[in-house]
Amino acid sequence: MEFLLLGPLGVRREGAPLELGGPRQRAVLTMLLLHANQAVSVAQLTDAVWDVPPVSPESNLRTYVAGLRRSLGDRLLTRPGHGYLLVVEPGELDLDAFDELVRAGETALAGNDVEAAAEAFAGALARWRGIPTAELDAGPLLRAELTRLQERRLTAVERYAKVALELGRFDDVIDRLRRETALHPLREELWAQLMLALDRSGRRGEALEAYTAVRKHVVEQVGVEPGTRLRQLHQVILASRAPSAAALNAYRQLPMDIAEFTGREAELRALCEPGPRSTVVISAIEGMAGVGKTKLAVRAAHRLAERYPDVQLWADLHGFDPDELPSDPAAVLESFLRLLGVPGGQIPESLEERAALYRDRLAGRRALVLLDNAAGEDQVRPLLPGSPTCTVLITSRRTLLHLDGVKSVQLDVFTTGEAVALLARIAGADRVDADREAAARVAELCGHLPIAVALAAKRLARRPQWTVLDLVSQLERGGGLGARGVFDLSYQALPEHQRRLFRLLGLHPGEDVTAESAAALAGLTAYEAGDLLETLLDEHLLQQHTPGRYGLHDLLRAYAVEQVTATEPPPARALARRRVLDWYVRTSWEAVRRLNPQRKLDIGTCDPAVHPRTFADRDAALLWCDTERANLVAAVRDAAEHDLPERAWTLAQCLWDFFNLRKHWTDWLDTHEVGLRAARAAGDRAAEGRMLITLGIALREVRRHDEAVDSYQRALAIFRAIGDREREEPTWNNLGIVHLVQQRPDDALECFERAASIARELGNLHSEAVTLNNIALLHAEAGRYDAALERYLRALEIRQEIKDPYSEAILLNNIGEVHRGLLDFPSAVAHIERALETFREIGDVYGQAESLDNLGLALHGLGDRRGAEKCWIESAALFEELGEPKAAEVRDRL
To answer: How many domains, the chain?
Structure first.
């Protein structure tokens, strides 16, 4: 028989539907099915069938049971004194199948098998055919039971949505959740999942509309605001429309687990066993290069992730990279703090303050921190959390003896058994079992080094006609044991076009490579390069931590450098390096054109084989800059180190808009100091002056005001000497801003007036508007509102001519502030509302917060206390979301 409970009630015998009687009889059957193979009492059935039971419900129930027996036969049993029992065999009830699939999904999720979890949850939900209450006359008990059943289904929907989001199946999630939120408009978790799905699929406007819809339902039907999760998610999505916002769930950073991981069971148990609850658990995996430290750490981290679900952070510390200095702990902390939601402008300057804020952000949170390739204790110590709710995994080639409380796991090369097991897993157990002795010899020839065994196994797997003994012959012919011999075997077996790309990767700047940057390096199309990269990944010559980005193991990077040096003549190496640097310069310039359309920069010509990436909009450009940041910084250094000074300073110039937007001050200062040295070494005075301007801005941002003034004065001397009036103008303006910050208004005003004069002389409307705004700001701060208003209005006139909505919004807000100073509150409100509308249109959250605060002050001046309060509540919430201290000032107004 087949019992169908998850939708319209039904029973089938050999596929034929059975007659089940009227609504109350069907209610009895539903109750019995919900408690299949258990006795259900008369009292329970009475509460399940009637709100107000008849005088003698037992008689009615006997009638219903008799009607059911005519269809179900001896499946329906009477238990004297206990009620009635329905016998259901395994596999007959759709509810049992649903529960089993849900359990399978939970198990897969616990094991981090997201694909299997999604399949199981989707299968469970597919069992449902509708709403099981529509045709029943249900009493209070059955209504409660059916509500619980619906709750189980909705929980499965939420579980499926979670895993499907991780897999990027946005369309399916969105369609499903739109139906569910329509049916269950007060279930906030469904709305949260829908908002996430819409936002991650690039439909942020619809995500915000979803919040508006759920808020309307909750306020109208319950009389309260939505819960904390929905409100916070709404603010994050709002903030993500602004350039300074962090990505959603950016604090879950573990790299992909390794499918072919084999062995190391004892070490895994040691790493995953619970530690003391009174202190941070610190585990250090130590061993030689290529022994599999990172793979073991990543596998352990994924096993521990369920125990530490709040935060998972990962950083490669480059402790032993021959081409890169070990990572600065301060820079790593900056990255971690951004991922934890601290805006760039709120990240302290000193290492000690950053470490303190980092420990504060992780206090009480179940956090896992994976630090790969540590150079030593001094590099690691500032990156350790302070809360006993956290755990840290570290990999290093050195012994980390002086870390307090560290648990060391020494990782040696594979045992013969582990090496043979990995060989069997990759190349096939049948082939290895056919000649275990030869397999052991392969392990020996690989020096039992995991990376070498994996490469040899992949070589065997790709050649089904070979036996293991054939592989032994190939390795022995190559001569020498260990990784080098296996690298030679794998590399020499590649076709020449694959060998060429592999060795050229030794010239690529930074941590990883994409198809587009590899294409520039090798003079290929992105399609050709992507195909070759995937082939090298299949051959285990590359690694992949995130889709679309490829990296070289340290040993293989050194081997690639060796091969490219030995094989490619110096002119060919120089050409490849120029091409990839040109690609970074040109693509960065395409990004700048989206981030700041007013920027002008002469970036020269590049190799015709270079095809820079273009961007559809500002968000796409910003995402690329965020993703490529480490490579971009490395490219500036690489250009300077290889006698390509123009590329070094040009790329640094391209990047400063991005660094300013994200407040990456360390990178800004580093790249500009490199670019400045390159310009001086090349004797390019104009480039030196430009570098001094943008370096001065960075110095001002980090409050090194005297150094900023010195930088601008040096730039002015250069531009006067070479007669560059166009560059002299922004230098005066920036010098004025520093004087303004230093509380030297007269000096600032003189600088701004000089800048404005040069801008008018050159007919540069954009620059004239900038300086007029600054002059007006000085007058307004001194209480000279009429003089300020005159200059603001002229600047606004210019802005409207050159179509710069962001600057226009700033001016409108400033004009509103001046009208407040003149006590013309209606005019103030009118201008500020226009500013607020523009800030919302362009997604500038900080601008919205500022103008809302200003609008509140203007409304308060009009006597509209309710309106002022509403503005300040929203302003304070936005400032708090951005981590801006001004939130406290606005709260004080409230």
So the answer is: 6
Q: Could you tell me if 159 and 172 lie in one domain?
A: no
765 assigned to some structural domain: no
How many CB atoms within 10 Å of residue 465?
5
* 521 belongs to a structural domain: yes
- Tokens representing 668 are 């800004």
Q: Are residues 395 and 466 in the same domain?
A: no
- CATH number of the domain bearing residue 504: 1.10.10.10
Token pair recorded at residue 245: 């916002």
What secondary structure does DSSP assign to 348-410, as a single string?
A: -SSHHHHHHHHHHHHTTS-EEEEEES---HHHHGGG----TT-EEEEEESS--TTSTTEEEEE
* Structural domain boundaries enclosing 63: 1-167
Last residue of a domain, one of 682, 711, 743: 682
Does a structural domain hold residue 706?
A: no
What's the token pair of residue 15?
């596929």
What CA–CA distance (Å, rounded) separates 35 from 87? 10
Q: Please list the alpha-helical segments (H only) found in 223-373.
A: 228-240, 265-272, 293-304, 329-339, 351-362
Read off the tokens for 478: 């190559």
pLDDT tens string 177-214: 988 888 888 888 899 889 888 877 767 778 888 888 88
Amino acid identity of residue 165, one-letter, is L
- Across 347-379, b (16+ Cβ under 10 Å) vs e yields bbeeeeebbebbbebbeebbbbbbbbbbbbbeb
Residue range 234-238: mean pLDDT, rounded: 71
Three-state secondary structure call for residue 40: strand
- What are the residues whose beta carbons fall under 8 Å from the beta carbon of 867, sequence distance 6 or more? 856, 859
Residue 514 covered by a domain: yes
Q: What are 68-89's pLDDT values in tens digits?
A: 988 888 889 888 777 899 999 9
Backbone angles phi, psi at 18, to 5 degrees: -100, 150
Residue 509 predicted with pLDDT over 90? yes
User: 269 and 406, same structural domain?
Assistant: yes
First to last CA, the chain: 68
Q: Are residues 24 and 153 in the same domain?
A: yes
Last residue of a domain, one of 410, 438, 465: 410
Q: How far apart are CA 535 and CA 659, in angstroms?
A: 35
d(CA 833, CA 89): 69
**Token digits of residue 13:** 């015998």
833, pLDDT greater than 90: yes
| Helices within 663-744 (DSSP H only) | 665-682, 685-701, 705-722, 725-741
pTM passes above 0.90: no
d(CA 655, CA 346): 21
Tokens for 479, please give them.
């001569």
Three-state DSSP string of 451-499: HHHHHHHHHHHCCCCCCHHHHHHHHHHHCCCCHHHHHHHHHHHCCHHHH
What's the pLDDT at 259? 65
Q: Closest by alpha carbon to 622, among 243, 293, 888, 892? A: 243
Same domain, 383 and 460: no
Co-location of 59 and 191 in the same domain: no
